[in-house]
Recover the amino acids of this structure.
């Protein structure tokens, strides 16, 4: 006789896609049910990451500050020719680097969290989404910490935030959404073949220079066309413009990119849940 406190699990060879409504309900039910586990994993990983670090959270600022300093040096020595930016160049690079960093972290985190938790959910009936959500929560937390450095930078550079500054977190959330959609799509192949994460890492290295992170978008030429069609361009530009200018010419592609990413993320989560039993079987071989 089964306990009334425990759910009854019935295993069937039938594909979950045969009942899409039930599948979607189970996905959201599992995500809600694992909220406490997500919090426990988030706090555990956060403490473990900085427990043996002398400088602690200071390391969160190093990538943004180092990239900004390097590009300021290259620009000041005329080693590169950068067109005029609407705000001081240091603030321009710092904001662009921050948004790009959030985007790339959101891409890499789902696969990394899935691989970190596979030893647990291969043996116990624990939703893998708990590990992935914990990893994504860490990105949000670290981004909020990094935003602190903007205060002294804006004061020193005399940059006055625009009236739309409150939309800046919305832009960062869009960067997380786009990155998470790509990251979830990486899991089925990336968990089986390390080539996927290496390929994506290489592409992101090139992608940064095809996105107006450290330079303003060119007005004409092949580069202008490539950058205009780059979906991440609108994410970087709108997020930075909301904080500093109050208006942006990239709002329409930003909305389109965000909506497409939301649909992609939903589809990716469904695909992930459908192929999960096969992934666990392959990883256990």
């Amino acid at each position: 006789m089964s306990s009334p406190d425990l759910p009854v699990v019935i295993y069937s060879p039938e594909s979950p896609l045969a009942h899409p409504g039930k599948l979607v309900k189970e996905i959201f039910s599992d995500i809600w049910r694992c909220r406490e586990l997500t919090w426990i994993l988030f706090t555990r990983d956060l403490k473990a990451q900085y427990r043996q670090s002398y400088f602690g959270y200071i390391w969160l600022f190093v990538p943004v500050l180092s990239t900004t300093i390097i590009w300021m040096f290259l620009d000041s020595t005329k080693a590169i020719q950068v067109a005029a930016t609407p705000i001081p160049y240091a603030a321009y690079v710092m904001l662009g680097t921050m948004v790009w960093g959030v985007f790339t972290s959101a891409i890499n985190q789902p696969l990394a969290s899935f691989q970190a938790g596979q030893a647990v959910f291969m043996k116990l009936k624990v939703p893998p989404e708990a590990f992935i959500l914990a990893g994504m929560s860490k990105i949000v937390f670290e981004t909020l910490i990094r935003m602190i450095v903007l205060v002294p930078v804006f004061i020193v550079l005399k940059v006055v935030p625009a009236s739309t500054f409150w939309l800046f977190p919305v832009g960062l959330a869009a960067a997380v959404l786009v990155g998470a959609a790509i990251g979830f799509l990486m899991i089925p192949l990336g968990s089986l073949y390390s080539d996927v994460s290496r390929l994506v890492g290489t592409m992101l290295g090139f992608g940064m220079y095809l996105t107006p992170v450290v330079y303003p978008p060119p007005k004409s030429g092949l580069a202008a066309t490539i950058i205009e069609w780059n979906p991440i361009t609108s994410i970087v530009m709108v997020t930075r413009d909301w904080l500093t200018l109050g208006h942006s010419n990239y709002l329409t592609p930003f909305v389109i990119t965000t909506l497409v990413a939301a649909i992609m993320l939903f589809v990716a989560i469904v695909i992930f849940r459908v192929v999960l039993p096969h992934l666990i079987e392959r990883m256990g071989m």
